[in-house]
């Protein structure tokens, strides 16, 4: 994988307040916006799939922030992994922290969520409609966002694997609840983690197009 630090105007190992959650912030020159990543249960800022997607988004001109949504102590408590309100609050805190940084000022913010992280992204977008301008969900659990779905105003793209039938059904139901610019894209042959050859590349292409269109 190409070392993205060579093309970034900003590359920092950061700590997100108030808990000092570790993360990596990269902002390329003339960035179009910044995408905050929300990883799924059992994952972290070191998710290889999210790192791969983030690298591709930077090549398209977007900054990226990958950070741990929970501290090590919190992550040991299983209930916290599925506490969507807690996780969405961490995303909002990260966005506020970004807005105060000189390199990120005036740049629109988007969200890229996977699995439970997608639910947290949707709840955060509903709670902060002026802050988040676009959302992409990869293999997400939007059903866990509950009543917040109808409050999402940011254009939202739901990406699901064609061989992930249970999650596909949940996303189809969630699509009906969303009252915003929205689309459901099914990646043929992909299972929940998009491990099959070429499937994650299709996710990247869809996410790039969505952010290029809506994150401005």
Task: Describe the model.
By secondary structure, this protein is an alpha/beta fold. The protein has one domain (4-214): Alpha/Beta hydrolase fold, catalytic domain (Rossmann fold, 3-Layer(aba) Sandwich). The protein has 7 helices and 8 strands. The protein has helices spanning 48-59, 72-75, 78-81, 84-99, 116-127, 165-177, 199-214; strands at 8-16, 21-28, 33-38, 62-67, 109-114, 132-138, 156-161, 182-187. The chain has an 8-stranded mixed beta sheet, with helices on both faces. The protein starts with 7 loop residues before the first strand and ends with a helix.
Helical residues, percent: 25-40%
Distance between the termini: 28 Å
Oligomer type: single chain
Given the C-alpha coordinates, what overall shape results?
globular
CATH level-3 fold name: Rossmann fold
**What's the alpha carbon Rg, rounded to whole Å?**
16 Å
- Corresponding CATH superfamily: Alpha/Beta hydrolase fold, catalytic domain
- The secondary-structure class comes to alpha/beta
Strands of the biggest beta sheet: in what spatial order? 1-2-4-3-5-6-7-8
Largest sheet data = 8 strands, mixed
């Amino acid at each position: 994988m190409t070392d993205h630090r060579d093309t970034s105007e900003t590359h920092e190992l950061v700590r997100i307040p108030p808990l000092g959650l570790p993360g990596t912030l990269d902002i390329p020159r003339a960035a179009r916006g910044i995408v905050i990543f929300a990883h799924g249960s059992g994952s972290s800022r070191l998710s290889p799939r999210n790192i791969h997607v983030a690298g591709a988004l930077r090549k398209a001109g977007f900054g990226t922030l990958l950070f741990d949504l929970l501290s090590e102590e919190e992550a040991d408590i299983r209930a916290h992994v599925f506490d969507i309100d807690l996780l969405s609050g961490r995303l909002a805190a990260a966005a506020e922290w970004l807005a105060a940084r000189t390199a990120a000022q005036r740049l629109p913010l988007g969200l890229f969520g996977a699995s439970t992280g997608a639910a947290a992204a949707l709840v955060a977008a509903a709670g902060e409609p002026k802050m988040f301008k676009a959302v992409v969900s990869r293999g997400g659990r939007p059903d866990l966002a509950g009543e917040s779905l109808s409050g999402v105003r940011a254009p939202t793209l739901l990406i699901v694997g064609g061989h992930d039938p249970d999650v596909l059904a949940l996303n189809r139901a969630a699509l009906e609840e969303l009252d915003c610019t929205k689309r459901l894209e099914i990646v043929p042959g992909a299972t929940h983690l998009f491990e099959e050859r070429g499937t994650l590349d299709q996710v990247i292409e869809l996410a790039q197009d969505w952010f290029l269109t809506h994150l401005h």
